[in-house]
Amino acid sequence: MGRLARVYAAVVVAAAAVAVAVVVVKRRGKGTKWGKVREIFTEVERKCATPVARLRQVADAMAVEMHAGLASDGGSKLKMLLSYVDNLPTGDEKGLFYALDLGGTNFRVLRVLLGGKEHRVVKQEYEEVSIPPHLMLGGSHELFDFIAAALSRFVETEGDEFRIPEGKQRELGFTFSFPVKQLSIASGTLIKWTKGFCIEETVGQDVVAELTKAMERQGLNMRVTALVNDTIGTLAGGRYEDSDVLVAVILGTGTNAAYVERANAIPKWHGLLPKSGDMVINMEWGNFKSSLLPLTEYDEALDFESLNPGEQIYEKLISGMYLGEIVRRILLRMAQESSLFGEVVPQKLEIPFILRTPHMSAMHHDSSPDLKIVATKLKEFLGIQSTSLKTRRLVISICDIVAQRGARLAAAGIYGILKKLGRDTLTSPKQRTVIAMDGGLYEHYSIFSECLNNTLRNLLGEEVAGTVVIKLANDGSGIGAALLAASHSQYLEG
Ligand code: BGC
To answer: Residue 179 Cα, ligand 1 centroid: separation in angstroms?
Structure first.
């Protein structure tokens, strides 16, 4: 063989070797790690899709369920609970009032000195206490005693500027952020627990009576003059600031919405006709369920293994308690079926609720070139020692799918309420509609809130969107509860 022929032969052999190598890589790509990862990812992406047409249907279904829930007791998954709040704050409220806000892993105690139209909120102080997890699943006495004890300690720190007039009892607005069937403005029975709380003996009980007994056990002389859901508190607090507030939405550990309904839209079976023309309704929209909701196997498994299977399906797609957990479940499947994080599945990844939504949010917002926040969080919370850039990018994409689905569905829910109120089109004369928003998910997860705002704008169209405002009402529910305690004070004349 001449030199040229030898070179040619060598080139052919080398080319053949490369060809074989390419085939091998291709085969491996399809059958192993990344091929399988891609397969799982594409399926998640497809099942979580929320095209605008689907969102419009979800909004319509929400509006239909609102009508059905109002029309008859148990007529819908939406409870549409009467709040007994038929006069929202006017600004005239005066005096010292306390509020207690129970609804998540923390509760807040708050005191506020209201100075009427002229002086508004003169002074306020608050304290936040975290609830030991065992109390969320323990006995009723234990939980209420813990809360009353914290409230009692807080009252002891009351400074001179807050003193109440001699002989008067301190009054409290109790924000209890669970579904309650109100019996009056200051009493109501718990329908069920949500958000990881589960204390069977309290279901069906009057929560104000439970708290009052616990306060008595602590020797605390205080009277609950308003019992409100956090949505109602937020609506009241929002209205105090802006008279165009008509809707309140909570996007935090849990999710819910409330709105102002016209009295003539509330059927008589409710047994109560509001004095004025309006009544605030607590929708309990977290329990919304529809075949239109884009559910995946991960959501179904999460629901099945939850403390409240079959309940709060919309909440389980949207709220802060669950978003991180959905991401964990997707990553776990990828780890198990495609060794995404190495041959051994990281043990921590198997622990339910270990990946919390704030961790997910931190990863999702990582804009560093090598995604080092993603790497750190995966190491810190899931014990995953090292990850490639490709893996980190994948994690972000999964966070994106899950967060966008939640935000878009929440926007559809809001759009549904606006439809029910006739505020999805331009009114004549043009009216502003303000939505008071509260909750850590909306406040801190900016990709989520931006997506929600853009989706709502898109659903409404530019012109109508110009009349709808979402206002962040930071802890509006605490002040709102205090304001409602004031407007229902036992010392009010008449
Ligand atoms: C509860 C609602 C509450 C919402 C937001 C839900 O789990 O059922 O009553 O308003 O969480 O806190």
So the answer is: 7
Enter the tokens of residue 361.
């949010």
The catalytic position among 76, 101, 108, 140 is: 108
Does the beta carbon of 250 sit less than 6 angstroms from any atom of ligand 1?
yes
> Is 108 a catalytic site residue?
yes
| Domain presence at residue 371 | yes
Q: Domain with 185 in it: what CATH number? A: 3.30.420.40
Domain shared by 145 and 252, yes or no? no
370-394 as b/e, with b when 16 or more CB fall inside 10 Å?
Answer: ebebbbebbeebbebeebeeebbeb
Q: Name the maximum alpha-carbon separation found in the chain.
A: 116
Question: Who wins on pLDDT, 20 or 473?
Answer: 473
Ligand 1 close to Cβ of residue 188 (< 6 A): no
Q: Which residue among the candidates 230, 303, 424, 438 is catalytic per the annotation?
A: 230
Name which residue sits closest to atom 11 of ligand 1, judged by CA. Answer: 254
Question: Does the residue 28 lie in any domain?
Answer: no
Ligand 1 near 229 CB (within 6 A): yes
Active site residue 306: no
Note whether 88 and 62 are same-domain residues.
no
Examine residue 179 and state whether it is found in any structural domain, yes or no: yes
B/e letters for 173-188, b = 16+ CB within 10 Å, e = fewer, are bbbbbbbbebeebbbb
Distance of CA 279 to the CA centre of its chain: 23
- How far out from the chain centre does Cα 14 lie? 60
Judgement on whether residues 257 and 126 belong to the same structural domain of the protein: no
Picking from 102, 126, 103, the residue whose alpha carbon sits closest to that of residue 113 is 126
Q: Which atom of ligand 1 is nearest to the CA of 315?
A: 7
Nearest to 256 by CA among 312, 204, 189: 312
pLDDT one-digit tens code per residue, 50-104: 999 999 999 999 999 999 999 988 999 999 999 999 889 999 999 999 999 998 8
CA 303 to ligand 1 center in whole angstroms: 17
Range(s) of the domain holding residue 405: 51-81+242-474
Output the domain CATH number for residue 317. Answer: 3.40.367.20
Q: Check whether residue 166 and residue 301 sit in a common domain.
A: no
pLDDT at 15: 39
- How far is Cα 426 from Cα 94, in angstroms, rounded to an integer? 37
489 in a structural domain? no
Q: Let me know if 446 is a catalytic residue.
A: no
